[in-house]
Amino acid sequence: MIHGYNPPERFLPYLSWTEVAALPDKENTVIVLPTGSIEQHGPHLPCAVDTVICAGVVGHALARLPKSVPAYAMAPITYGKSEEHLHFPGTVTLDGETLLLTIVQIGESVYRSGFRKLLIVNGHGGQPQVMEMAARELRLRHGDFIVVPQHTWRVPHVAGKYMSDREKKLAMHAGHAETAIMMALAPDTVHMERAVTNYPPEFPSKLLSPDGRPACAWTARDFGPSGIIGDPLPATREQGDAILDSLADSWAQAITELHTLRWAAREEATWGKPQHTGFIQQSLG
Predict the structure, then answer these.
(1) String of b and e for 158-190 (b: at least 16 CB within 10 Å)?
(2) Rounded Cα distance, 55 and 33, in Å
(3) CA 104, CA 133: separation in Å to the nearest integer?
(4) Per-position pLDDT tens, the chain of length 285
(5) Where are the domains of the chain?
(6) Which of 145, 175, 161, 188 is nearest to 274 (CA)?
(7) Quick one: which of 94, 65, 101, 41 has its CA closest to 260?
(8) Contacts of 241 (CB under 8 A, 6+ apart)
């Protein structure tokens, strides 16, 4: 069934429309939207890594919540903005405008159903700006809508204790942490016999890039033919279990805090009629 890693009772699409209508305290119920991508992750990992990780972490987090915290997952957005990987077969990408409109329209549906708290858990590093733009657009349209866009890995976790200093500094894609957590979430899709180590050269301008990461726009093929940017070889299933456990704990706490949050809500009448930004208005014709 399509609930994936989520407890079935916390999967919003499994409710009927009458059950959704009858939910108590919808204003403080947290709706969680995992947002991933389908893009190459080297020869040893599947193209679905980002979607698997964000959906898996959300599901494990929801399973840890007490019944007193109302929260539901939506089906994940599987496809994302992945143009930096389009030179590799298997990558499926939307452009930024399409993804932005998709997030906004999903958010409108969430709002129309009576919910006022939307948490976007983004698993792909190439699209956080799109999530932020969509969240701002929804806030401008609805003054009582709290939309939080956040990356899957931007909460406390233990991955760093297993990684080398070089990995922490330069790894960006299909490296140690992603490989380990995929061993925990979808071990049958991991093929370590194909894994290789590949780091990008340090960026030559210390002023533009104090940490040595690329300061200019890049595509994955800029760093070699494997698609890997990091070192997946030290990853183990035990590490992946620990990383998943720490991420799930942190996200369960974050969802709980968002449920109890009371922040700057404005009545729609105060804001006037919702206004589209110029970009959205033009896109919608």
Answers:
(1) ebeebbeeebeebbbbbbbbbbbbbbbbbeebb
(2) 9
(3) 9
(4) 899 999 999 999 999 999 999 999 999 999 999 999 999 999 999 999 999 999 999 999 999 999 999 999 999 999 999 999 999 999 999 999 999 999 999 999 999 999 999 999 999 999 999 999 999 999 999 999 999 999 999 999 999 999 999 999 999 999 999 999 999 999 999 999 999 999 999 999 999 999 999 999 999 999 999 999 999 999 999 999 999 999 999 999 999 999 999 876 665 534 444 444 444 444 444
(5) 9-264
(6) 145
(7) 65
(8) 184
Taking the mean position of all CA atoms in its chain, how far away is CA 232? Answer: 21
Kindly state the percentage of the chain with pLDDT values over 70. Answer: 92
CA–CA separation, 20 vs 25, rounded Å?
11
**151 token code pair:** 């990356």
Reduced to 3 states (helix: H, G, I; strand: E, B; else coil), residue 231 is coil
Give dist(CA 185, CA 240) in Å, integer: 8
CA distance 60 to 95: 30
Joined together, the tokens standing for residue 74 give 């939506």
CATH of 9-264, one of 2.60.130.10, 1.10.1760.20, 3.40.50.10310, 3.40.50.800: 3.40.50.10310
CA geometry: angle at 202 spanning 132 and 197, to 5°? 90
E strands in the chain? 30-35, 71-73, 117-122, 146-151
pTM: 0.92
